[in-house]
Sequence to fold (514 residues):
Amino acid sequence: MSGAHAIELRGVRKSYPGFMLKDVSFTLPSGVIGGLIGPNGSGKTTVIKLIMNLVRREAGEIRVFGLDNQSAEIEVKSRIGFVYDVPGYWDDQSLDSQRRALGAFYPRWSDETFRRLAGEFGLPLDKKYKALSHGAKTKFALAMALSHGADLLIMDEPTAGLDPIFRRDLLKRMSALLQEEGKTILFSTHITSDLERVADVITFIRAGEVVFSLTRDELLDGWAIVRGDDRVVRELDPRLVMGVRRRPFGVEALVSDGDAVRRAVGGRAVVDRVTLDDVMVLMSGEVRHAA
Amino acid sequence: MLRNALRKDLLLNARHLWGIVPWFLWVAYAMTEPDAGRITAVGAAFIGSLMATTIGAREDKLRTTATLASLPVSRGTLVEARYLVAYIVGAATYLIVVVMAAGLPWSVQRAAELCELKTLLLTLTLASAAIAVLMPVVIRFGLLGVLVFLGVFQLLGVGLMVAFEFFGSRSSVGVFSAIERGIAALHAGLEQPVVILETLAIVGLAIWLSFRLSVFLAKRRDL
Fold:
């Protein structure tokens, strides 16, 4: 395993009653923004929890900056800023009390950074956590995650429930962290427009399996969507067809090599660039696959 | 790291520990009774330790257990802090009762009696028993664990009472007086060096086993 990767998963397995994460493998290079997407219940949160060692893996290997996330847990976690999908803090305590109690665990904690971020996010430090809105709670979690000089930021659905203005601000901040400080970010989301805006690497998980892990350019420039009649789609190389959707006036197929398919179908079908929405919809569970 | 974990438990769960305060009202009243002061002092430390032991249940409810597990601190250290906090709170509660015995104008309980070695050791034994039994349950099952644990004890008590009422020759009161007699006998015995050493060894072993079990459970728990 290479030290150039911020995150490396190899053959990771975890099972719950009715769900299994099957031999999940992917890497996230240092200094990029990685997005995890997939339908509800596909295993995105489980993957994030496994990286954070919040749940125990049954098999496989997880390395963060080349270190095993279990045997070097403390060192690994001191380099990670983590934002949970539903941030859990002490309801009856002020934000400042929580800053004092939790910041002390991090060797590189900076009160100055925290206060600056709290000011930028409009967080009232003397207020109790329970008095905050959902968005403000996420902002607080984000301020905590960004105040200890983390090299890697892991966020589970950070933009869910945020207003569009703060969502845009958060994405801008993520890009700035990457460009100005060389941080690595991994986040899961359902909002494909967020991924299209900032993600360099996109990992798609479905039913506990990694379907692909590609750079945004590989995906959006290389893949394509074919719209035509059933006969044209049936003639496509099945190895290239990732998903099919039947529409009232024809068939849509998601293909993993747009150029090859363009050459194959000629003018008999329309071959368009894909959007992440197309990928999500065509690769979700209800879609019948041609292959 | 242990210091940070201790500080976190005491700072962020202070409000939970205020739940002990009503017990002090009872203590204040009990100080008027000639024989009740010592029992309420031991009881205060017992309750204080129990309250501190259930910090984990509160943190489960608030979903902060996962937040804690994401910090750069081992789960073992967090568990260690929990045990220490339980003892610190138990000791602080006992100390407050001693001060009340000395300071309340209507108190008939002499503070010096509460500082006798045998009373201190009895308090340590009972508080340790509570911590040793409840802590692994809290750590593994959280709030639900506490509720189930207390529910089972409640049902066990009711079951015993019913069983003795219908099938036994003794009344249910006999069970509780037997427990009371046992505690009194232990208290009396704690004047002898052999009993002191045996008790300390048993308490130490029970807490060590409980701690190892709690660490094992904490490390295996999926959050």
